[in-house]
Amino acid sequence: MLFTYHALDKDGHEREGTVEALSMEVAVSTLQRRDLIVSSIEPAVQKSLLSMDIGLFQHVSNKDIVILSRQIATLFQAQVSALRVFRLLAAEIDNKYLAQVLTQVADDVQGGMPISKAMARHPKAFSDFYVNMVRSGEESGKLSQTFSYLADYLDRTYEVMSKASNALIYPAFVMGIFFVVMILMLTLVIPNIASILQGSGTKIPAYTQVVIAASNFLIHFGVYLAIVVVVLGIAAWKSLQSEAGQLFFDTFKLDIPYLGDLYQKLYLSRIADNFSTMLASGVQVVEMIEITGKVVGSRKFQVMLREAGEDVKAGASISDALAKHREIPGIMIAMIRVGEETGELGNILNTLAAFYRREVSNSIDTLVDLIEPSMIVFLGLGVGTLLASVLVPIYNLAGAV
Known about the structure:
This protein is mostly helical. It folds into 3 domains: 42 residues; 97 residues, Type II secretion system (T2SS), domain F (Receptor-associated Protein, Up-down Bundle), CATH 1.20.81.30; 239 residues, Receptor-associated Protein, CATH 1.20.81. It contains 15 helices and 3 strands.
């Protein structure tokens, strides 16, 4: 059961929050072990729809976790106690939801719970990869070093992902504005011009008739078209929630010319970087493969890594297990095999991760260079066709008069 409490700490400061326990007596005992004097405690009641925290707004961005990990690593290196670290960060962080999470983590740690287990209770903030890395750091006694690894890894991942998303913001914005303007032209301007041309009795060019037909369709059936688009969008979104739908979409992404190659390099970069980071933190090989499958971001690669993990459990080497899958290029398998034979697998994986990060960065730069001229050509054709369909008949009408 979940209980809400009000209490005083040993310094006389008021504390309030929630604690999960089998009974109220167990909850009180848990709080007392945290050096809290309980003033009131009661079972948590279900909040109303208006007062409850909607999950949609409880969001922790990658940037928040990157900054948080760097701060935790710095404080641990300064020999600050774990409890003090989370209390300090909870008081200083801007994200209210993350501050609440850190407060609950601090409460759990004060009650004797390991940091990894306390973090595992908040999957919206801390992924399986993050939790398992922390658990490995606790078991090896290298928690400070583990948080440094995490901060470096998340920083690299955030840099790649933010570059990819930022590269698409401008084209998406321009194309969105273009389609809005085209729809407004077709529904507000073209009908007036079409009535003038049709009333004049002059011959209307074929491309102008196509534009007028498109305008009439949007005016009379635009609402139905919007409904169909929304329904299809919802159906596609629901299908993507299933494992089969995600597998189909991820396979489709990898088959797209050029973009598929970019996605593959991105996933390979994540795999190499995850392997390298977890090996450096002492995570077991089988667990490393399983966790990487969960966080790689592709259902197709997740299935592949799950199968590779089963092969490694059966006694195969990492390189042999990965060699069965065409998603992994031969050069990567060869380098991993060399790392296994020489005992330098960590350094090899670091080299692979850096190589694929550069490849992803270069591919994104090339994609941006291709998108901008392609977008200009597309916009020019769209605007030029619309203007020609309007201006040429008007010019002909003026000439006839």
